[in-house]
Amino acid sequence: MKKPTREKRMSARIPYTRPMSYGVMGNFVSPPGVVEVKGKILDISDSGVRIRIDGQALEPGTVICIRVPIHKSKSRTPITVPVLAEIRWVNEALPAGRQMGLRFMM
What we know:
With about 110 residues, this protein is an all-beta fold. The protein has one domain (about 15-100, about 100-105): Thrombin, subunit H. About 0% of the residues lie in helices and about 55% in strands. The chain has strands at about 15-25, 35-45, 50-55, 65-70, 80-90, 100-105. The protein is globular, with a radius of gyration of 15 Å. It starts with 13 loop residues before the first strand and ends with a strand.
């Protein structure tokens, strides 16, 4: 029988299904990404977010700038907040698309 894994999260997740986009930040080896990747936020907490993407997943440890939608204004222009986040885990074995867990870097 498989031993249950201990929950590592310090904060509760809240369902928050919204479209999102992100760009990869640069490092000493490669420059910042110029391509915006589209995806969907699945849930959010005060310390991170879980997203689903259709494209190629990134490596854990990669820093990205995610644009979190928070509100639609009266002008129908979505309001987004850019947030730096580190990819903590990747799950590519799900039929509904690749998922990544991100930790906010505040």
